[in-house]
Each structure stands twice: as C-alpha cells, then as structure tokens.
Amino acid sequence: EKVFLNGKIISAEDAKISVFDRGFLFGDGIYEVMVQLENGIFYKKAHLDRLQDNLNKIGVSFHVKTIDDALEPLLKASDLTDKSCLIYMQVTRGVAPRKHSFPKGAPATVMMYALPYDLPSINPKNMKAILEPDFRWHRCDIKSISLLGNIMTNESAMESGADEAALVRDGMISEGSHTNIFFVKDGTVITHPANEHILDGISRQIVLKLCKEMNIPTLEKPVPQTEIQNMDEAFFTGTTTQVASIAVLGEHTFYDNDNVGKTTKRLQEAFAKLRT
Ligand code: PDD
C-alpha cells in the first residue's frame, strides 16, 4: 500500500509523521474524501476547491495544485489507474512545538492515499437512522480532521444497530454524522441551509442542482425534529453514501419494507447517471 507524504510516494509502513505534528496534537488540519468511478474522479474540482477554501479559512498556506499533480502518480503507484477507488487526503498545519498559537513558517504536512472501493451505482440500502444531539462546535462548515462529535454520534448509531445518526441542534435536524440529510414534502425537496452548522456536501450541491434541472422545487431551511412524522420521504447524501433512502428516522418509520420514495428514486437514478 502506497501513500503520498510531503511530496513523495512511499510505502505505508515507511510513512512516518512527527508526534509534534499539529494534526496529531490538536486535530489542526483539513481532510477530503473523493471517489474515482467509471468516468474518472467524481467531482474532483469541487473537492479540491473545497479543500483549498477550508485551508484558507483556517489560515494554512498550501496550494492544492500539489495534490492535484500527485493524484495520477499516486493512483499509478497504487495500481488503481482507472479503477474504482476511494481517495483520502489531509493537510495539517505542520510540525511545531506544542503551543496554541499558529507557528510561523512550519510547512504543511500533506498526506494522501487511495484504496480499492466499490460503490454500486445506486445505494441499495434503505437506511435506519437514530437521532442524536448535535453537540459539535459552530464551525461545521469546516471539514476539520477533529471529528469527535461525528464519530461519537456515529458510534451510538452502530451500537443501536442503525446505519447513521441524524443530528439535532436546537430542535432542528442539521445533518448526518458523515452525510447531509434531505426531506421530501408534497413534492418539495427540503434540506438545511449551507451555514456554519453543516458541511456543504458536494453530493448535497449535486442533488440541489439535479432538482433544478428536473424541475423539482427545493427549499433550504432546517426541518424541526417534530416535523419528521409529517415528511413524505427522507434521504442521506455523501461521497461514500451517494443518495441513500431512509426507511426509519428516530421514532418515525417511512417504510417497513424495501420501498423507496418516488422523488428519492428519481434523484438516485439521476445521480447514478452522472458516473456514465
Ligand atoms: N463525509 N456532512 C458531514 C459531516 C460529512 O463528514 C460529509 C462527508 C458530508 C457529505 O459531504 P460530501 O457530499 O462532500 O461527501 C456531510 C466524508 C465522506 C467522510 O468523512 O468520510
């Protein structure tokens, strides 16, 4: 297994990072996940642009061109050229003595790897999700590598035999632990606005664009937890989730079988077409 680390492609066993790396000490860094599918890296530019925006937001000086240029050699070294795979990238503020203030002049630590990954063109799962309090910070728009809130709520979902946790902040459904969430009511597709309480997912943006193209009305507003029972359909979106129907959300059961709502199904099919 090969990794790209600070300009070099080496084997994973030889890839070493200092214990003084700020990613390790503070979770001080940004990550991205993208997939390569039948027709290339899915929305590569959108992912790299978001990575650059996030690095700018936290004041790490690094240009994603380095990553863009390294993708092809990394895939080649990993024997994944033109193959379905998942690509993980992270950039941290670099190595420096532990101090809260930002170090001056420490070069960013840049790491990425690719792994074989099969993603069916339509997610076959009808997801079961629990509701969990969204106790994360108020900058969820930043794709920070500090993911304690996300992994703790996800783990609660796993412990209760569910597939995902939908998070509730001030009575409103914000997003999933690693997905965005959408509802359908009377033919309108509703999702949380892209503000500091959610990550503006690339898949979220794609679904909103597909809705426009398909003349499906959309509404970007938070849905109160108390309104779940009045919704007709719900689905999660994400790079490794694509569009996944939700069968059960908290106390509410949308379907007790493999049914998928009409609008969800149309969007799943339209999303799958983007790979061809
Ligand atoms: N998760 N919201 C959160 C909190 C996420 O972590 C993610 C992505 C999304 C969906 O974003 P996108 O559509 O750009 O993948 C929403 C990635 C895949 C992960 O942590 O593995």
From TrEMBL:
Stored InterPro entries: Aminotrans_IV, Aminotrans_IV_CS, Aminotransferase-like, BCAT-like_C, BCAT-like_N, Class-IV_PLP-Dep_Aminotrnsfr
GO molecular function: transaminase activity
Record-linked PROSITE patterns: AA_TRANSFER_CLASS_4
A single GO BP: amino acid biosynthetic process
Keywords: Aminotransferase, Pyridoxal phosphate, Transferase
Pfam families recorded: Aminotran_4 (PF01063)
Cofactors: pyridoxal 5'-phosphate
GO cellular component, one term: cytosol
Similarity comment: Belongs to the class-IV pyridoxal-phosphate-dependent aminotransferase family.
Name this protein carries in UniProt: Aminotransferase IV
Organism per entry: Flagellimonas oceani
